[in-house]
From TrEMBL:
Keywords: Signal. It comes from the Eukaryota. This is Peptidase A1 domain-containing protein. InterPro entries: Aspartic_peptidase_A1, PEPTIDASE_A1, Peptidase_aspartic_dom_sf, TAXi_C, TAXi_N. It comes from Stylosanthes scabra. Pfam families: TAXi_C, TAXi_N. Residues 64-373 form the Peptidase A1 domain.
Amino acid sequence: MSVKSWGEVALHTLLVFLLFSAIFPLTFSAANQPRNPKKRNPLASDSSSAVFQVEGNVYPLGHYTVSLNIGYPPKLYDFDIDSGSDLTWVQCDAPCKGCTKPPDQLYKPNNNLVQCDEELCAGIHVSKERQCSAPSDQCNYEVEYADQGSSLGVLVRDHITLRYTNGSVVRPRIAFGCGYDQKYSGPNSAPSTAGVLGLGRGSASFLSQLHALGLIRNFVGHCLSVQGGGFLFFGDDLIPSSGVVWIPMLASSLEKHYSIGPAKLLFDGKDTSVKDLELIFDSGSSYTYLNSKAYQAVVDRVTNDLKRQKLERATDDPSLPICWKGTKPFKSLSDVKSYFKPLAFSFQKAKNSQLQLPPESYLIVTVGTFLRL
């Protein structure tokens, strides 16, 4: 599990595909359940896709957020987008400890607790054992992220406003966390968002619940602009019909994460001898993390290549042990590209094709990148 600001692990897509030299769209799906028309909810429209505006940028914010209306009458809350975790939660007036929002912007529960004996409650716990003295007890949760940031609270169920691309609106009841005790332990200031939107593969994720209700087909994507902002969509209406590359997803031991491979590491389009890499996609992480062998291969090649450039090692920031600076500050990605060669992953089972939805789990790469389950 991870999310930018509340915790960081796994991999940031901008650095993974430097070959594309710009921010590109990503699509994640949360459950590998097959399509089943019989499960379609009668409330769903003929167009089963919904689009939400995304705010944020790579720099200086370093994260992207989306706002969702919760409750009835609806109230707007902003969330970090995180494909690396399942649980969606919002800061909760219960009362709240460690919250970053003022009381009037906190979620207020209203006799809508999820009970401990519900299957959804089991979905948010690592262990199958739920500590319930009685089946009707409330479903408590605790989620901890890679930097030891955490949220403690109780699971509730409330209306979420979902507007389809054809203009129709549904308000299904979705379960999410009501976080009344947040902890943050990072070098930067506490996050400004109201909570985390969990888009992982587990049964409790936002996408999985919508799919289980028959309201959407299990696609989710967030497309990011190089100028900042973008959009988040649920459903498959916006998947391009051509110009795509399919990459099979792995049946990983990390069953709630999006994992692809095998992949080879390329530097300046050339093989580095690092291969058979298994990669995890995590929209909530700012950085790309490599194992020691791949990391050292990248460092060695970048260092050797920069010997011909007018750059020098920067040592003033202890959090970045390997860093370079030029005679003038870098002002854009274009400035960086003139000094640094592209780093890329070559997926050994990628297939160029027209869009034909396959039975297996796939990642699609085009001018953007798409994942399908």
